[in-house]
Give the backbone structure.
Amino acid sequence: MRWDCYVIGADAAGLSAAIQIKRLRPQASLKVINMGRIISYGACGIPFVISGEIAAPEKLIHFTPESFAKLRGIRVDTGLEAVSLRTKDHLVEVKDLETGKTTAEEYGQLLIATGALPYRLPFVDYHEEGVFHVHTIEGLTRILAFLEKTKPRTAAIIGAGNIGLELAEALKKRGIDVLILELLPEPAALWPARIRRAVAKKIEEKHIRFFPGTAVKKVSKNGRGFVLETDERSFEAEAVFTVVGTAPATAFCRGEADMTRNGALEVDRRGRTSDPDVFSAGDCATVYHRLLKRNVYYPLGSTANKMGRVAGINMAGGDVVFPGIVGTQILKFFELSLAKTGLSREEAEKEGIKTKSSVARRLDKSRYYPGAVPVEVELVSEEESGKIVGAVVVSGGNAVSFIDPAAVAVYAGLTIEDLGWFDSAYAPPYAPVWNALVSAALKAVSNED
Ligand SMILES: Cc1cc2nc3c(=O)[nH]c(=O)nc-3n(C[C@H](O)[C@H](O)[C@H](O)COP(=O)(O)OP(=O)(O)OC[C@H]3O[C@@H](n4cnc5c(N)ncnc54)[C@H](O)[C@@H]3O)c2cc1C
């Protein structure tokens, strides 16, 4: 049988697309396959299950294949892995992971929504009990079983990016002594300097042992725990987590569509790859950056859902052009809420954009209202035009109420003057009269320090 639409991957991007295809082209024959048995879940919640804030891994699951079929009318076949692709013949070769049998499936249009896989350090044996990466719900179950059974007193995390930091907090909350080993000189390396500094300070405050500039070269079992070795020294821990980034899960389609160096599928703003009948979305694909005016690899759940929706509508015969991301992100690290949108000054400089920045420090509620916490906003604007190109927020409360309006400003090309007179909400329990974002914009307008 030739499927009108074939979707590989049943999570954020794949299922967002499938829902649109079903909605707009209900008569089309649609097949969705997924390698894992569990579909549609919030991997983003994994650290919070480890910390105990969320009671169980199952809480992260939005749909099972059964509930998806019942509520959305779409069948998802799990335990099937796409192993090769022949775009010339419109064929995808699919392996049944239970029987090992491989079949060729014919498609009219194909969506590749296979996400990304965590990098595995070549010197680490991930089969060893007590060694983990943090990526899937199946992996989470393994982690929880280990933590509950062996009750480790110490854990080493290799990598101080977003997931490494969220994990450090989670393990600390379980009473585990945490050690972070990071190759680069600072934690949160992909974030702006203001955030990197705030994270480094918080790491110290929380008594997490942090070793920057540390290249682990060997991990070996040693009695109850592990020894992690660099050229100069060694560390000991009873559990090891590697969180050193991800790579697009596209090995099976190499050579069949244009890819970036890291293996992300190049797509246009309709989600189409260099093959007109093959679409891609989510962590396995690039995405258009509105400010940079080019595609970037920016793997996030927010983008995967949107790009999946765009690809699905276009596969169903619609015509949606994705306007692009502006690089909005937020991260919780203990009491801190850290967020950015657009370009930091460092990033703008690399792009040859001359910027100025203004910083405002305020409270997030009226000074006299109980629970008011500090918030710091840095606004980055283009020197000549005054257009806002980015913002950075470090908040003791919730940075969303500052970063989202800033993201709209960047998206819409507003200037510091526009934002300075922006009609922001005020009531003592929620916001002060002069909120930090508005203050930063007005400071920029009047060139105040
Ligand atoms: C611990 C953690 C925390 C995160 N926190 C955040 C956050 O706070 N905010 C945020 O925006 N993002 C966050 N993310 C990222 C977010 O989860 C991803 O961007 C999102 O899941 C990507 O969705 P996707 O559909 O592209 O891919 P995935 O969710 O990875 O889904 C891909 C699916 O394809 C299947 N698959 C893969 N290869 C094949 C194949 N060959 N054949 C068949 N099926 C295949 C997989 O089994 C999987 O089900 C986090 C991720 C992790 C791991």
Q: What stands out?
A: Residues 8-14, 33-36, 43-44, 46-47, 81-82, 113-116, 134-135, 163, 249, 252, 282-283, 299-302, 304 surround flavin-adenine dinucleotide (CB under 6 Å). Residues 301-315 form the longest helix (15 residues). Residues 33 and 77 are 5 Å apart (CA to CA). The chain has three domains: 2-116+247-315, 120-242, 337-445.
